[in-house]
Design brief:
The complex is a heterodimer.
Chain A: H1 5-16, H2 19-26, E1 30-33, E2 37-42, H3 45-54, H4 56-64, E3 71-76, H5 125-136, E4 145-148, H6 155-169, E5 175-179, H7 180-192, H8 196-204, E6 208-212, H9 221-236, E7 240-245, H10 257-263, E8 267-270, H11 276-289, H12 296-305, H13 310-327, H14 333-339, H15 341-350, H16 353-363, H17 368-372, H18 378-394, H19 399-405, H20 411-427, H21 429-443
Parallel strand pairs in A: 2-3, 4-7, 4-8, 5-6, 6-7
Antiparallel strand pairs in A: 1-2
Chain B: H1 3-13, H2 36-47, E1 52-57, H3 64-77, E2 82-86, E3 105-109, H4 118-134, E4 137-142, H5 154-160, E5 164-167, H6 173-186, H7 193-202, H8 207-224, H9 230-241
Parallel strand pairs in B: 1-4, 1-5, 2-3, 3-4
Helix pairs in contact in B: 2-3, 4-5, 6-7, 6-8
Chain lengths: 444, 244
């Protein structure tokens, strides 16, 4: 088969441009040739501008010499041609992208994210129960459902689970999962293209609207305004709204008060970092979904070392799986330690007793010297006990070493501190939250 | 051919960045050393449709750019739509990421360079979400691990930790020698041990500089119709030093 003018042109450009230029600007282009014209579709305006400035003349001259001469049209666009997409349920890749229903907004629901695959623990069971109720009874149970918590703890998973279950029960339901950033982007586009009425209609006709990470609405007044009206319209029509946020609604700066107050009309639930056992269960579940045999002791090892969030756990697991796929060796504890050596070295470097003392002192607005002093007032003792407990949990230092690092205390003091903190975390929400916050600060 | 077209084509021959096909970044001309698992993972990303994020980190000159370009090239060859984005280049702005979420494979080089830039972080976040939802692949490179990249957006930082992370080891001298010889062999050039050793002791020892030197030696040996020997190489180095 004879090479098309564009193929010949690509070959020339490859020689003319630096490799980096070629990969950055030429590779993402899609070409449509019909004999007399060559339409080049670029992913964005930026690429179009670069080509205009740097090599459009070259392209024109290369394809211009063919017979008959070819006109070049360069524009932003995409063929929307079949693209190879990974199948959600782990099957073989298909050649086509599922057709997107007309006037559908938002992203696709990830079918991997179901209630069945959500690993439940103390840290998230309230949120899970509320989400499940909402999914079984959309628009009626809790509206809106507001789920908040740190990054990578499963908020998005729960949200997709709700959407998936609603669709399972009512396949014709109009469910949209939208990241708030995307809501803002779509709205800006609608304003630019004069299609804001269509935008409003589409959003307000949904049966369920799932909006992720609403902290991104902060300081975007026009978007907040539009969202406020969408929100009201849906709520009035008893359509379900689910929102997630990285913090408690009242704590989001730059969000209008009327929105904050409406967010609290339904149910607000927190999702906390998983405790060890939940992390282990999450790892085992993910490994199983990948068809990988992960021994429990390896899962415990990883979960013990990576405490901040589920995404990092997943990253560590992926690294182990990748190394095992390459070497063909079964996953054992030694193997995992080896595969994660760099990752764990970073964590070790990150968490030192010094670092813990500094962080805890800052957190409670006291001085490190106070932590190490003999002072026994409660405002000092409590942070000191928490710091000791963190040192035991996050470092490999022995108890005598930890005691020593806290102004030369005995190891029995450390044991006492750890017990005390454990009890307090169970009985006092405040202590539990402080501890979790500190864990997160120290491990991310 | 019109005079104008000829002028354009002649003008292009003066572009200094000419790269012969032999030196296009590819997996095959990357000296793996101890980075076999990474190479394996990148090949899979280039060739198999899947939802994936992969972060490669290592010092400058460890070959990150080569690997990301090779990934984009291999993905393209496998029929996927791919792009390579050099985030540290001044010619590139966050807008360059617009619409890349439609692609199958996106490689962003030097991502740590733009950590802390609000516009970039937003654009990367959107790209990540778009690719994830479409079941596509994102490959990132940086000087450091994701935890140390100092992103301001915690949502972005945590998402970027969700894939496999690989540390790319810079080559030691023995490995550099082996890499040079393997690159030479790939070009059909014989580089004897003593000559490779000579290069390592006399020239700039960054891998990139060594490969550029090899390129020059290839050309000169072809022009002079001579094999690579220590005296010949010394002559080339001397003339380079004299500004030749």
């Amino acid at each position: 088969m004879q090479a098309s003018p564009w193929n010949r042109c690509v070959k020339q450009l490859r020689a003319d441009l630096s490799e980096q230029q070629f990969n950055t600007w030429i590779r993402p282009l899609q070409a449509v040739e019909d004999g007399s014209t060559l339409r080049l579709l670029a992913p964005n305006r930026f690429v179009v501008n670069w080509i205009n400035d740097h090599c459009l003349e070259q392209i024109q001259s290369y394809v211009g010499v063919s017979s008959p001469p070819v006109d070049v049209i360069l524009e932003v666009g995409s063929l929307g041609a079949p693209r190879k997409v990974a199948v959600e349920d782990g099957g073989t890749p298909t050649e086509t992208r599922p057709a997107v229903p007309v006037a559908f907004v938002g992203g696709r629901l990830n079918r991997d994210y179901t209630f069945d695959r959500f690993v439940e623990g103390n840290s998230n069971q309230l949120a899970r129960a509320a989400a499940s109720q909402v999914a079984h009874n959309p628009g009626a149970a809790y509206n809106p459902l507001f789920i908040y918590g740190g990054v990578g703890l499963g908020k998005t998973h729960l949200m997709h689970s709700i959407g998936n279950l609603i669709l399972e029960q009512r396949p014709e339901a109009r469910v949209a999962y939208v990241h708030s950033e995307q809501f803002v982007g779509d709205m800006v586009k609608a304003l630019q293209h004069n299609t804001i009425n269509e935008f409003k209609r589409t959003y307000r006709s949904l049966d369920a609207l799932l909006i992720d990470d609403i902290q991104f609405f902060a300081k975007k007044d026009r978007s907040q305004e539009e969202f406020f009206h969408t929100f009201n319209a849906l709520l009035e029509g008893q359509r379900q709204i689910v929102l997630t946020c990285d913090r408690y609604p009242k704590e989001v700066d730059g969000l209008e008060e009327r929105l904050k107050s409406r967010f609290g009309w339904g149910l607000t639930v927190a999702i906390e970092p998983p405790e060890l056992e939940t992390s282990v269960a999450i790892l085992m579940g993910k490994a199983q979904a990948e068809g990988v045999d992960l021994p429990e002791e390896v899962a415990f090892f990883v979960a013990q070392r990576i405490r901040s969030n589920v995404r990092e756990l997943e990253g560590a697991l992926r690294r182990i799986i990748a190394t095992s796929a390459f070497t063909g060796r079964p996953i054992t504890l030694d193997f995992a330690k080896e595969a994660l050596r760099d990752l764990l070295a970073l964590q070790d470097k990150l968490v030192t007793i010094d670092n813990i003392q500094k962080t805890v002192a800052e957190y409670f607005k006291i001085r490190v010297a106070d932590l190490l002093s003999k002072r026994r007032s409660r405002s000092i003792t409590r942070p000191r006990q928490i710091a000791m407990s963190l040192a035991k949990e996050l470092t490999n230092h022995s108890l005598p070493e930890i005691g020593d690092a806290f102004g030369g205390r005995d190891h029995t003091t450390v044991i006492h501190a750890c017990r005390r903190v454990k009890l307090l975390r169970e009985s006092e929400t405040r202590v539990s939250e402080d501890y979790q916050n500190l864990l997160r600060i120290l491990t991310t | 051919m019109t005079a104008g077209v000829r002028a354009v084509i002649e003008g292009m021959q003066q572009l200094p960045l000419h790269v012969g096909p032999a030196d296009q970044a590819a997996f095959d001309n990357f000296y793996a050393g101890e980075n076999g698992a990474l190479l394996h993972a990148l090949r899979e990303i280039a060739e198999v449709a899947q939802r994936a994020v992969l972060w490669v980190w290592g010092p400058p000159d460890s070959g990150r750019t080569h690997l990301l370009q090779a990934t984009a090239g291999a993905a393209d060859a496998a029929g996927f739509r791919a792009a390579f984005v050099p985030a540290a280049e001044t010619s590139v702005a966050p807008d360059a990421l617009d619409g890349l979420g439609e692609l199958d494979v996106v490689c962003v080089d030097d991502i740590d360079h733009v950590a802390g830039h609000a516009g970039w972080e937003r654009a990367l976040f959107v790209l990540f979400e778009d690719l994830r939802q479409a079941g596509a692949r994102l490959v990132l490179s940086a000087r450091c691990a994701p935890l140390h990249a100092n992103f301001d957006l915690p949502d972005l930082a945590s998402r970027l930790t969700s894939g496999a992370t690989f540390r790319l080891q810079a080559l030691d001298d023995d490995q550099k020698r082996a890499a040079l010889q393997s690159r030479a062999a790939w070009r059909g050039l014989e580089l004897p041990d003593d000559v490779a050793q000579y290069l390592l002791t006399r020239a700039d020892r960054s891998t990139a500089a060594l490969f550029r030197l090899l390129d020059r030696l290839d050309t000169e040996s072809l022009a002079a119709q001579k094999r690579l020997t220590v005296p010949f190489v010394r002559g080339v180095l001397d003339s380079a030093r004299r500004g030749g």
